[in-house]
Amino acid sequence: MARDLTPKYTVPGIERAAAGRIIDVLRLRLHALNDLHLTLKHIHWNVVGPHFIAVHQMVDPQVDRVRDMADDVAERIAALGGVAQGTPGSLVKERTWDDYSIGREDAIAHLGALDVVYTGVIEDVRAAIKVVGEIDPATEDLLIEQLRDLEQFQWFVRAHVESAGGTLTTARAETEEDAAKAAKA
User: What are φ and ψ of residue 106, in 5° steps?
Assistant: First the structure.
């Protein structure tokens, strides 16, 4: 039986049903951000090879910012009258993607896989912006700010898997495994 997630109250100027739609979108954004910061820490802990320290140090500020993004999304959910479900069980139950699949691996392989991860997250944020933008400019603004940072992080990652001629080694990869292999090749 589906629960009614319509909030009992919300911010002034937004109907409760509309707030419920925003909360629904933000719930998946919260799960994606929590998953992303754990994935980034996983990479931080499992990266090896000659580029270890560069990637190890590049990832930590991304972890911190993504955690801040998750906090901002959770607080927006609460402000709209919703409940921010930040538990691992909720994340696993409701996510629409698989777990990060690369274990202990070379830095370039992890960066190739991370490029695919960022592509998925960024595409989902853009879709969320379209939905909430029709209802609430404050939530839209929050997501746009996060989009800028996520795109910058992907740019940092792509700088490691791009040729001097501008070709991404991961351009044709559809999975993390394919991207990891392509980046190493």
Answer: -55, 145
For residue 119, give the amino acid letter: T
* CATH (residue range 16-184): 1.20.1260.10
Closest-CA residue to 107 (of 62, 57, 35, 67): 57
Mean per-residue pLDDT pooled into runs of 10, the chain (185 residues): 76 96 97 98 96 94 98 98 95 94 96 97 98 97 98 97 93 93 91
Beta carbons within 8 Å of 172's beta carbon, 6+ residues apart? 178, 182
Is the pTM higher than 0.90? The answer reads yes
Q: Whole-angstrom Cα distance, residue 6 to residue 16? A: 6
Alpha-carbon span 132 to 25, nearest angstrom: 8
Structural domain boundaries of the chain? 16-184
What is the CA 83 to chain-centroid distance, rounded? 20
